[in-house]
């Protein structure tokens, strides 16, 4: 059995070995296409959230998320075009609007916004890891890896903001039957 350091070194070596340019396989194309679609969908969510919240800290987090996501999405888009893969149809950008003009029955709360984005980011991190594990081509693997790193860098400040505002939804503690109960 290898140590965690040896395993990480082997993964990095796998992504840095030079290889002849192989054609994309169907799994890589599907994962890139799905990522592009999901990231474009996230832009809509970020734009709607920016049109809804008046919280300065949440707005700053959302603006950073949108900027990073736009850059990552552009990289995926350019990669797909370069490889000759047609782009999926996506929703147009949302126009800016005044948060006070959004009716209460439609308006998302800051708590809802933060939790929606948190779940989407967690799912995207997992998706990138799965996509990366299926790649054959180094460039595809590195693309998903770099996007995953950007997502993880964004997730930490979001989680800290959610904790500080009481928005973080924590599941109940679990004690298996028969386990000793810690003192209260």
Walk me through the structure.
This protein has a single domain (24-91, 102-165), classed as Ferritin (Up-down Bundle). 65% of the residues lie in helices and 0% in strands. It has helices spanning 4-16, 26-52, 56-82, 110-134, 138-165. The N and C termini lie far apart (40 Å). The mean pLDDT is 90.
Give me a quick take on this structure.
This protein is an all-alpha fold.
- The level-1 CATH class: Mainly Alpha
Round the mean pLDDT to the nearest integer and report it: 90
Binned, the helix content reads 55-70%
| CATH fourth-tier homologous superfamily | Ferritin, core subunit, four-helix bundle
Main pleated-sheet profile: none
